[in-house]
Amino acid sequence: MNRNGPVALIFHVLFLGFLLAPILIVCAVAFTSEGYLSLPTNGLSLRWFRAIGDNPEFIRAFKDSLLLGAVSSTLAILVAVPAALAIARHQFFGREAIQALFLSPLMVPHIVLGIAFLRFFTMIGLGGTFVGLVLSHVIIILPFALRLILAASTGMDRAVENAASSLGASSWTCFRRVTLPLILPGVASGWVLAFINSFDEVTMTVFIASPETTTLPVRLFLYIQDNIDPLVAAVSAALIFVTVAAMLVLDRVYGLERLLVGKGRD
Amino acid sequence: QEKTLYVAAYGGSFEQTMRKEIIPAFEKANGVKVEYVAGNSTDNLAKLQAQKGNQQIDVVILDDGPMYQAVALNFCADLEKAPVYDQLYDLAKMPSGKAINFGAVGTGILYNKAYFDENKIPAPTSWKDIEDPRFKKKLAIPPINNSYGLHALVMMARLNGGGETNIDPGFKEFKDKINPNVLAYEPSPGKMTELFQSNQAVIAVWGSGRAKALADTGFPATFVYPKEGGIVLGSAACQIAGSKNAAEAQKFIQHMLGAEAQTALAVSAGFGPVNKTVELPVEKQAGIPYGPEQVGKLLVVDWDTINKNREVWNKRWTREIER
Amino acid sequence: MVPYLLSAPGLALFAVLLLVPLVMTFLLSLNSFSFYGGIENVWQLGNYADIVADDYFHEVFLRTFRIAAVVTILCAVFGAPEAYILRRMKSPWRGLCLLIVLGPLLISVVSRTLGWALLFGSTGLVNQGLMALGLIATPIEFMYTETGVVIALTHVLVPFMVLSVWASLQRLDPQVENAALSLGAGPLTVMRRVVLPQIVPGILSGSIIVFALAASAFATPAIIGGRRLKVAATLAYDEFLNTLNWPLGATVAVLLLIANVVIIVGCNRLVERRYKQVFE
Amino acid sequence: MAYLVLDQLTKRFGTWTAVDHVSLTVEKGELVSLLGPSGCGKTTTLQMIAGFLDADGGRVTLDGQDLLAKKPNERGLGIVFQSYALFPHMTAAENVGFGLEMRKVGRADRDRMVADALKLVGLEQYGDRHPRRMSGGQQQRVALARALVIKPSLLLLDEPLSNLDAKMREEMQIELRRIQRTVGTTMILVTHDQSEAMALSDRVVVLNKGRIQQVATPQEAYDRPANAFVANFLGRTNLLPGMVGSGAAGTVITIADSVWPVSQPVPPGPGALAVRPEKVGFVGEGGLGGTVLARVFQGTQWLFEIETAAGRMMVIRQHDGSPLPAERDRVMVGWRADDMAVMPADPEAASAAREAA
Amino acid sequence: MAYLVLDQLTKRFGTWTAVDHVSLTVEKGELVSLLGPSGCGKTTTLQMIAGFLDADGGRVTLDGQDLLAKKPNERGLGIVFQSYALFPHMTAAENVGFGLEMRKVGRADRDRMVADALKLVGLEQYGDRHPRRMSGGQQQRVALARALVIKPSLLLLDEPLSNLDAKMREEMQIELRRIQRTVGTTMILVTHDQSEAMALSDRVVVLNKGRIQQVATPQEAYDRPANAFVANFLGRTNLLPGMVGSGAAGTVITIADSVWPVSQPVPPGPGALAVRPEKVGFVGEGGLGGTVLARVFQGTQWLFEIETAAGRMMVIRQHDGSPLPAERDRVMVGWRADDMAVMPADPEAASAAREAA
Ligand SMILES: Nc1ncnc2c1ncn2[C@@H]1O[C@H](COP(=O)(O)OP(=O)(O)OP(=O)(O)O)[C@@H](O)[C@H]1O
Ligand SMILES: Nc1ncnc2c1ncn2[C@@H]1O[C@H](COP(=O)(O)OP(=O)(O)OP(=O)(O)O)[C@@H](O)[C@H]1O
Ligand SMILES: CC(C)C[C@H](N)C(=O)O
Ligand SMILES: [Mg+2]
Ligand SMILES: [Mg+2]
To answer: Which long-range contacts (CB under 8 A, 24 or more apart) does B112-118 make?
Structure first.
């Protein structure tokens, strides 16, 4: 495969620069020795990282967020994959409506969902529970998963699946051994995107999180409502480091490319 | 099986004080666990409304204005009698008897002393100083759904011949004179702090408690009450109607009114004590509306009138001022 | 039968967990509110009438969709080529860059927007840099302006576009691009005429995600835009949280929802029809 | 009883009828080829048998059982797809092993069978490679191995050898024949290569525009085509206009200035004579005179284009070292009366013949 | 000066050398075929000329200009891909028109040229169809039309006719020849069909494992192969072991009980005789005795497999109506001394020959 031309590379560098700029600045600020947000002009300090230790609720929230993200995105994938296949593969009555329904949470402002879920969960007694959080997150992240899986499965070469079933693969086996691996980049991206969205959701979660089970972004959000100090930057930076480390480990163990690109491709 | 008491209250420096100095003692004394739900007054009021009929919060702490509303919306239960109520100044009591002011701060003007000195601007002395064209795009004011912003609006009305019952002059003043200076109508105390720290704002209408917290970080910010008078902002607590832990909730409120808690709130969060038995050393009194005389020097606003008109004012505010 | 079975779990989930709360919200939008009385269980369309009649709301909605549209276009214009460039990169670099693109998504919007706020302020790095370079004399205003909101939202949302285009790029046969090159098409033409039409599903997915998120974005416009630059989400937020006028907030929400649905479904239709052969 | 029966099988795409009431019976162990011009419906027919396309009409039975009622994966047949349809995410060996895995063949057996199959198609060293990294012919051989390894009782082959060189193709042909004989596999082969069809098939089915034109053994179809389309499609044919009349020795046909005896009953009047190029030879006398326009080397054969008084003719002669005319030589061509077919000058047949060309 | 020059062109995939120091010069207007077994590097060579693969070594010049330095889209050559590589989102007509559009041909001209090109490949009615809705052969023809319509001065054809039936293929061959003659297009053709290569090419290039084996005119390569690989690859060859010795009439080779005069200088001792199956005939006497094992109809020819005392032999006879032996008949086969080649029993050559088989 040919490489990118100089123009493309310049574009690429600028693009990455744009993406990284605010993150780098947050990381830089995290090392300040001042009591307020500023670039570390008077020497580096780890005091704000140490301060995270004094706020165990950030760490607890981080764990909750991870768990919530993992559970809800996995559930969302389980629901989205069959639905995406139905929509991508079949012409049936109500197809458009079903698709619109599945994508609709995207179009409902999260603040509205937050209020709606809060009232609903309070009514059915799920208020402030982890189950409630998971269910609401499944709803809001499903469109992401669905959209990416749809993009991966529309226009997929059906002949390959035909080949599998001609060799005796049942629908399920055919799905598991052929369709799934082929749409895996879509499914994986879908999962990642779903996870990220769940992990990062604030607006809605603010309403349904209870003090016991709250997510990191909600904690951060509530925290900066009242104090913007370098602690937020330190938590963010720590989160960035953890993320990068996790990605690197994932890359080593499984291969990010393999996950997002799929096997047997260049 | 330990009971859990949910307390919804402000975040930030106030939360730190509560968590470190007030809650542990209460937990120990009563064998309950306290979960702190951070949020500003309006957020917490909204939560109460959402959970109506199935309240998860046991105790709520709100600014006095929103507390009137909470009481009016029947979110609060009656306060049980307890000896500690007899130790309070009268100004702590709220007319309904369902909520109690446990502290007070004052609304005034905060400014960046370093910036003022550098540019040889004299310290502000009057509410009208925020109209100084030198502060173009350098002024920050909370919007009127926040008590500080509301105070500012009422104050401007009063200075121009109006008041709570005739708010027009206030709107006019904001629209014509103040708006050009306003960098942001900023409700979030965190954001307000950040605007100061990044030197984008150098003057603001804000509260004494918040100002104290900012100054405590080492930032050269100074708080003054303008010569026309600062305004008192009460902070009130109530037990939520239908709470499953009513007894503990009542105890918690009583605990907050106790001398020990009152002292801690004063020293760490800048809340003027409402308990007569609290004695603060003079050096600790700076920036705190301390005792009836000092509190008495501050102006009060008429929440009844305000709350009646608030909806209309909000509407006008978003359309005329924040546009 | 098969497609219904396949979508059944999702349908069940949505029927219970989405439709019920939304219907509750819609019903709420018919209620009325008064400051001391709270929400009253009357059924009327007064809230809708208020919004339709008030040009303040028109302005906010218009601004919301203007921002969302610009952000969507920017994301498509920058995100799709970036995904394409990523795909053409050699192995170790590609993984690394993919990570850089996706990484920011894991960092809370709140932190990222904070980063922009630090960069953007009149005393922020961007303005200081530009002034140091002599490009500008007075600071450009990013904070509390639509430009700032658009830039920050683009930053927040562009990875979604990259990811979604990336997924659809995986299906492309590189020989097909070669064929176009052999016929004399330059790299840009190949991208525009051959690659682009084939990744339309990906761009469409990305655009829908980006548009919907941009139109209902709350945290970023709230932080960068401040209170004076209101968008529909912050408006609804205000009604819910500040004035406690939930019925009005619900009405704003329902209208935002309807507008979103109409715009997105409309564009979806249009694009799918235009490129129907790639969607088969 | 017939093993595979297609009964009035029909498929429409919109208003286009791709397969039009096709009926065919195939015996167990038979190898039947589908022949026909590009787009005539061969692939579509196979896809319906395999169950990947729903028929719009007609029935298919295999061993007496209704095949259309079964799911594709229960039909138990092997297919080589025209587009290969390899699993891109699996290596060659994994591709080949997939069907065995589905049949729950144990690991050890499977590995052995996969290795054998890959060896059979000459890819023993390529087991670990992914399809994207293989040449076209290699991919096609993987597809073939994948279908063969499961030893299906019915094998559908859609141009399975089109990207192989002659050597390899021949080997594969022999292999297919061997499998057919020893395993008794019934095969339906789609091929555009007529010599392949001729060499391999027990019977050929000639299709045009979705309709069956003729079902016969290869030699029968070649020597006694049912209609002008078949005649023209199966190898080249010289169609010479002439006049049928009665001579001393019975019916004759006069082509330009040469006269040929006719054994079939043909009405007198304008007629046409059909003779295959390879049945035409260069004769000393008593033939049709002409000039060599071009001679083209084709490996084992030479193709001559001859301009005669009755029009252009093609002549094929074996490249066996015997002396052959050069371009622009004047020659005399002739053929045996048995090798020619005479038909009345039928405008419709003529037009059909033109169309098939 | 040569038009296209490949100089020591090399490509490696990892440790695998797919193309190994290939050097070749092609004159303007020439049609050169690349022949070789599947996986020998034909496609890879074309892809390097086209610029889709970077060469690991060597140079390519076109008309004196360094081609490798140019971007693929500036090389101005036409390609038909083995996998077609049609634009799936465009109709057949749009596919064909794409190259013209790139050349800024006006709308009206373009439409006309596209229509002509589609007509040329017999798809005039399919202009509106998308590739996915076309048969394999139809897709291939669209690919061909797409490359032809831009009238490139250099045309690379990677098995462009592999999915077409004989009729269509022949028409297309004639068309390619015509274009080559009238437009003067230089063409490089990859094909697995030897008769196609023989019929079309000015010269053929035989490749094996990435290396050039022989470059020659078709007949030369066929009749005087450079080595056993070429001999074996280009059509079938009978290799019979024998003993070279001296007889009354000069050098002779004894195969089983038959004796053949040898005209080339060959050292006495064990040797091998190579003779092509189509050069072998059935003789009355004085030949090699054997039994017919199988006879296979191949359209214009019959292929016989004969068991002789010297091993199995293949014999091809034209299907021209002359009487031919049946299976299990005892026969006597013979050939002309000119048609045979005798070589010393070289173990290396023999192994190469086996490998190529
Ligand atoms: N991307 C790749 N990575 C590794 N090996 C490759 C790759 N592409 C091709 N090869 C190998 O290089 C060799 C030459 O491949 P090429 O496609 O040139 O063969 P070919 O001569 O065109 O064969 P065919 O007639 O089967 O199409 C093959 O053995 C193939 O397996
Ligand atoms: N999905 C489709 N939609 C519309 N028409 C189609 C579709 N698939 C095939 N066709 C048409 O049906 C006809 C028969 O196609 P089919 O693939 O069976 O041809 P084929 O005989 O296999 O030809 P080839 O030898 O070229 O592969 C063709 O004319 C083709 O254009
Ligand atoms: C008394 C204060 C702590 C409360 C006030 N509403 C604020 O958020 O600043
Ligand atoms: Mg076909
Ligand atoms: Mg090839």
So the answer is: B112/B196, B112/B199, B112/B201, B112/B202, B112/B203, B112/B220, B112/B221, B113/B220, B113/B221, B113/B222, B114/B220, B115/B199, B115/B202, B116/B202
pLDDT of residue A259: 63
Q: To the nearest whole number, what is the mean pLDDT of chain C?
A: 83
Residues 6+ apart with CB under 8 A from E158: D136, E42, E43, E46, E79, E80, E81, E82, E190
Question: Shortest CA distance to D62 belongs to which of D22, D28, D102?
Answer: D28
Which of A37, A115, A127 has its CB closest to that of B194?
A37
Closest to C227 (Cβ–Cβ): which among B73, B319, B322? Answer: B322
Q: With CB atoms and an 8 Å threshold, state whether E87 touches C280.
A: no
Provide the sign of the torsion angle of the four alpha carbons B303, B309, B315, B319, taken in this order: negative
Tell me the backbone φ, ψ of residue A210, rounded to 5 degrees: -105, 165
State yes or no: pLDDT of D347 exceeds 60.
Answer: no
Distance (Å, whole) CA E99 – CA E93: 11
Considering only CB atoms, E87 lies closest to which of C176, C182, C275, namely C176
Q: Interface partners of B (3+ CB pairs, < 8 Å)?
A: A, C
**Residues with Cβ < 8 Å from D116, sequence gap 6 or more?**
D149
Q: In this predicted structure, what is the pLDDT of residue A254?
A: 63
Number of other CB atoms surrounding residue C38 within 10 Å: 18
pLDDT given at position C107: 73
Would you place residue E347 in the very low, low, confident or very high pLDDT band (cuts 50, 70, 90)?
A: very low
Q: What is the pLDDT of residue D16?
A: 87
Chain A residues whose beta carbon lies within 8 Å of the beta carbon of residue C276: none
Contact call for E233 and D167, based on CB within 8 A: yes
Nearest to A148 by CA among A108, A114, A117, A192: A192
Q: Which residues, 6 or more positions from B181, have their beta carbon under 8 angstroms from its beta carbon?
A: B130, B131, B132, B133, B135, B136, B137, B138, B139
- Asked if A110 and A141 count as a contact pair (C-beta separation under 8 A), the reply is no
Ligand 3 centre and the CA of B18: distance in Å?
Answer: 14
Residue E273 β-bridge partners: E240, E342
The closest residue, in CA terms, to atom 12 on ligand 2 is D18
- What spacing in Å lies between the alpha carbon of B190 and ligand 3's midpoint? 11
Distance CA D308, CA D287 (A): 11
Report the pLDDT value the prediction gives residue C278, as an integer from 0 to 100: 64
The ipTM is 0.75
Distance CA A124, CA C172 (A): 48
**Does ligand 3 lie within 6 Å of residue B10's CB atom?**
yes
CA distances from A41 to B214, B253, E19, E143 (A): 20, 45, 60, 64
* Average pLDDT, rounded, for chain D: 85
User: Does D130 contact chain E (CB < 8 Å)?
Assistant: no
pLDDT of the residue at D141:
93
* E236 contacts on D by Cβ (under 8 Å): 170
Q: Quick check: E52 and A2 CB within 8 A?
A: yes
Which one-letter amino acid corresponds to residue D337?
A
Instruction: Give yes or no for residue E133 CB within 6 A of ligand 2.
Output: yes
Which of D136, D131, D91 has the alpha carbon at shortest distance from D114?
A: D91
Question: What are the angstrom distances between the C-alpha of D106 and each of A168, D75, D103, D109, D335?
Answer: 16, 22, 9, 5, 62
Residue E356's pLDDT is 44
pLDDT digits (tens, 9 = 90+) for E176-226: 888 888 888 999 999 888 888 888 899 999 999 999 999 999 888 887 778
Are A163 and D103 in contact (CB < 8 Å)? no
Contacts of residue E161, Cβ cutoff 8 Å, sequence gap at least 6: E140, E144, E168, E169, E172, E173, E191, E193, E196
Q: What is the C-alpha radius of gyration for chain A, rounded to an integer number of angstroms?
A: 22
The CA distances from residue E329 to C74, E306, E333, in Å, are: 82, 10, 12
pLDDT average, residue stretch B178-202:
86
